[in-house]
Every structure is written in C-alpha cells, then in structure tokens.
Design goal:
The complex is a heterodimer of chains A (114) and B (114).
Chain A (H helix, E strand, L loop, with lengths): L2 E4 L4 E4 L4 E3 L1 E4 L5 E7 L5 E7 L5 E4 L2 E4 L9 E3 L8 E8 L9 E2 L3 E6 L1
Parallel strand pairs in A: 2-12
Antiparallel strand pairs in A: 1-4, 3-9, 5-6, 5-10, 7-8, 8-9, 10-11, 10-12
Chain B lengths: L3 E4 L2 E4 L5 E7 L5 E8 L3 E10 L2 E4 L6 E3 L9 E3 L8 E8 L9 E2 L3 E5 L1
Parallel strand pairs in B: 2-11
Antiparallel strand pairs in B: 1-3, 3-8, 4-5, 4-9, 5-6, 7-8, 9-10, 9-11
C-alpha cells in the first residue's frame, strides 16, 4: 500500500539557517504530493503541492521538488524564521484506486531559535 | 466561508461515557474524514465519507461510529469512551479532482478520557 516516510524530529535550527526535511514515498503510478504545516494549537493547512514528476511546489519561501526517480519530495527553505516553528507533514494522494483520501507521514517538528 | 468547523474545542469524559464530536463544512465538499493525532504517531484515519449516505472505515475505526446524512455534516460518535481514546481529533474535507484537491482541516477537538 501507499506510505510516506519522513525524517524524525525535532529539527532544531537557529534563525536564518537552511532547512531540509526529508520525505520519501511508496506508491503505485504517479501520486500527487503535498506538504502540510501545523502551527501550535491549530489544524493542518496546505503549504505546497506538486502533481507530476519534476514539478516544484513553492510557498512562503518553502520549496519541494517531485523526484520520481528517487521517490522523494524533500522540503527546503533557505533562511528559516522563528515563526516557521511548527510540525510539517508530508502526504501523498494516490492516482490509482479511486480513493481521494491522502496518506500522511508522521510529521516532523521544527523548532527555530532566535 | 467558515471552512471546516469543529465543536467542542475541548472535552473531558469519564470512561464509559458516550459523546459526539461535531464537524461541519460550508464548501460543498464531497469528501470528509476524521483523523486522530497522537504524539509520535502522526495522523491516523478513523473514518471517511465520499458523499452523503456513504461512509467507510479507515485505519483505526474501532470504538467510533460515523454517519453522513447531509453534505455539510460528519459527526463522530464515541460509543463508550476509553482512556486510549484520549487524543486530538481533526475533521477534514476535500473535493476530488485529479491532482488538484487539497484537504481542509478544522481546528481540532482535544479529548481527555479519565
């Protein structure tokens, strides 16, 4: 079945550091890929998405590129801020089987210090 | 649009009590789902619905019931609460479309079962 694997956290960085959160997936066909962010005390919200191989999703300075050859969708940001402290979830929605319910990774907590 | 709303925000139950977590969306989305979020476990799918009158089980359905009598509402019922059901519950909705859909999440309900 479909699955998403994320690096375990917490990831602790200083402000303005470079961020990478790794995400790899297992799925049949060409799934759509997503990154969601959960700020403290809130629900998840979509951060970015990519629907086909080599697509790059971007939003709020975050980027992720859909790599079919390595089945990866790593999240990057060049300079993190304290306000980026949150939990980040990688997810996929399979293209097969007719199901529109996504599969989520376990989440990676990011803590950014001033 | 209010988006996805959940009530209550916080609830304390005694073991054996029953209750209903409410979820409503005003975006005319066909798909709705319930997740629970536990530390280190990420999001786990409890039940989902692909339209009014149609529901199905997710990864962890035991101890929970759902129904979908209208497009807007998708309540989650705990039949006999147990301490293992202490968690944060999120409702989400989406509208299917090849690679275009996004899950919209509610703010969550924190449940403590004593």
């Amino acid at each position: 079945g479909d699955s998403v694997t994320q690096m375990e956290g917490p990831v602790t960085l200083s402000e303005e550091a470079f961020l990478t959160i790794n995400c790899t997936y297992t799925a049949t066909g060409y799934p759509s890929l997503f990154w969601y962010v959960q700020y403290p005390g809130e629900g998840l919200q979509l951060l970015l998405k990519a629907t086909k191989a080599d697509d790059k999703g971007s939003n709020k300075g975050f980027e992720a590129t859909y790599r079919k050859e390595t089945t990866s969708f790593h999240l990057e940001k060049g300079s993190v801020q304290v306000s980026d402290s949150a939990v980040y979830f990688c997810a996929l929605r399979s293209a097969s089987g007719g199901s529109y319910i996504p599969t989520f990774g376990r989440g990676t907590s990011l803590i950014v210090h001033p | 649009n209010a988006g996805v709303t959940q009530t209550p925000k916080f609830q304390v139950l005694k073991t054996g009590q029953s209750m209903t977590l409410q979820c409503a969306q005003d975006m005319n989305h066909e798909y709705m789902s319930w997740y629970r979020q536990d530390p280190g476990m990420g999001l786990r799918l409890i039940h989902y619905s692909v339209g009014a009158g149609i529901t199905d089980q997710g990864e962890v359905p035991n101890g929970y019931n759902v129904s979908r009598s209208t497009t807007e509402d998708f309540p989650l019922r705990l039949l006999s609460a147990a301490p293992s059901q202490t968690s944060v519950y999120f409702c989400a909705s989406s509208s299917p479309g090849r690679g275009l859909e996004t899950q919209y999440f509610g703010p969550g309900t924190r449940l403590l079962v004593l």
